[in-house]
Amino acid sequence: MKKTPVLLLAGFVAMMSCFVACDKNDTPVQPVVLTLYDSLGGTTLVTDPTNPSMKIEQGRLGIRSVVDSTIFVIAADTAINSYFTVLLSEVTVGNLSGFQDLSNELTNFFCVATGAKNFMYTGLNMVDAHDPAKNSRMNGKAGNDDFDAFVADLVAGAQQNALPDYLIARVGALVETLRTQVVQQ
């Protein structure tokens, strides 16, 4: 007989839970999930240091800063800079158009890949971008060692911009998903 009140109470709680869960006016609370882009600064507008009269999303600025630093690290890295002879020869004579295009395309790529909503990547897919037969700016096909060197240079570029280790790890995990498309030897 002691079980009857417990069963009645359990039944009542279950019935009330159903009514509460089925209430059409109740909207379930969804947890806020930050994209990697949000973690990198998101859509907050800040002054663009390269053009003080313009505003830029903080996430894009952070990504662009890491991209630009990484390009300079790669330029000094004899392990992989031979893949970028066209770009390096242009920069050597003061022509920055290739650098600016690469910076913009990589920034767009990483913005989209990290969850930004306000940008679009219109460049080559990763296979074609790293195939010298389809991209005359690439000087050879990359191997796994080259990809590893790129990742190390990316980490160095991120560290130059004081990106926290946990965000570097998240960016690294994202980049690692591209290995099979970039490595073509």
Automatic annotation (TrEMBL):
The keyword Lipid biosynthesis does not apply. GO terms for molecular function: heme binding; oxygen binding. Residues 1-21 form the signal peptide. Keywords: Signal. This is Group 1 truncated hemoglobin. The keyword ATP-binding does not apply.
